[in-house]
Amino acid sequence: MSSAVVVEAPGEHRIVPHTPVPPTAGEALVRVHAVGICGSDREVYQGNRPEGYVRYPLIPGHEWSGTVEAVGTGVPAQLLGRKVVGEGFRNCQVCDRCHAGATTLCTAGYEETGFTRPGAMAATLTLPARLLHVLPDDADLTAAALLEPAACVAAAALKANARPGERVAVVGTGTLGMFAVQFLAANSPAELLVVGTRPERAALAREFGATGFHTLPAPDLPAGFDVVVEAAGSASAARTAAALLGRGGRLVLTGIPAPGAEGLDPTDLVVRQLEVHTVFGAPPDAWAHAVRMFGAGLLDPLPLVTHELPLDGFPAAIELVGSGDPKVGKVLLRP
To answer: What's the rounded Cα separation, in Å, for the pair 228 and 207?
Structure first.
């Protein structure tokens, strides 16, 4: 019998029988293959997600992959049987931000799969078919479950606009940092430095294309980089990233540190004429970029997966994600 994880309230969850929700007009029903767990899922379970960004009771799960099993009216029949991933933001499609393609800034308010709408920690997921991105027929669905965080980094890569031959750097050695290395490596940089707190990630970073690796705290960090992508989210990561840049450099911030983080120095930003971009979530063009890179073999998420558990392993998976154990990378649940 198929099942689902339901978080009733902070700290309270149940494994319940799951009945698929038949797709209505414009929707698709997806058989979930794998669902990733990230820090925000831990926030949902612990109850420290910001107000308005979660609605209990909830089936969590916003990083997932699967296969289309049924479609509603108005949805192309050729989607049936296809391997897919899907965007999480339930944008309105009619506000000016949506029309500009910036769906993560939709003015209709925040709605997202796995936070305010039922997520993928279940045997099936029903969602608007317009949010689906089709994968190649031979795609590895376990690897594809990581395409949601990859899409967020794709958004950063598009904003960074790194050109071949530029000096680029990544601050952060978690899942997002390792994706940032892969996206930037695809642009043929002259140098690709990775800076972070996990020395055990050095080998993987080099495998993904890094030319150098510095473990923090490092008193002798180089400078003069053209592009830096920050993917750490620590209180000091933004300042570390800005210090790596040369005059006129481009900084993209993706991490969300806890309140009270050290701010960037506005005088430094102005005098050195630094460009600062930020990313929260992934709009459609970033999803398309990530899926295209994955399909072309330029993005390899699989080495980032360290644990796969069944759905009833949800509490153990949440513990793993928060353990701080250097052996824990990406944790997946397999419905």
So the answer is: 19
Question: Are both 27 and 142 inside the same structural domain?
Answer: yes
Apex CA 20: angle with CA 18 and CA 22, to 5°? 160
Model confidence pLDDT, tens digit, residues 192-218: 999 999 999 999 999 999 999 999 988
CA-CA distance, 212 to 249, in Å (whole number)?
19
Residues 208 and 188 in one domain: yes
Tokens standing for residue 94 = 């009619």
DSSP code of 113?
Answer: B
pLDDT bucket at 311, cuts 50 / 70 / 90: very high
Specify whether the CB–CB gap between 232 and 253 falls below 8 A: no
| Cβ contact 307:331 at 8 Å | yes
| Torsion angles phi and psi, residue 29, rounded to 5 | -105, 125
In a domain, 205, yes or no: yes
* Backbone torsions φ then ψ of 218, nearest 5 degrees: -125, 115
Give the number of domains in the chain: 2
With a CB cutoff of 8 Å and minimum separation 6, the contacts of 284 are: 87, 101, 103
The C-alpha atoms of residue 213 and residue 199 are separated, in whole angstroms, by: 8
Residue 5 clears pLDDT 80, i.e. is over it: yes
| Cα distances (Å, whole numbers) of residue 210 to 172, 189, 200 | 13, 10, 14
3-state SS track over 171-232: ECCCHHHHHHHHHHHCCCCCEEEEEECCHHHHHHHHHCCCCEEEECCCCCCCCCEEEEEECC
Looking at the fold, whether 141 and 28 belong to one and the same domain comes out as yes
Range of the domain at 61: 3-146+301-334
**Distinct helix (H) and strand (E) counts, the chain:** 10, 15
The model's pTM is 0.96
Residues 76, 45 within the same domain: yes
Burial class (CB in 10 A: 0-12, 13-18, 19+), 69: middle
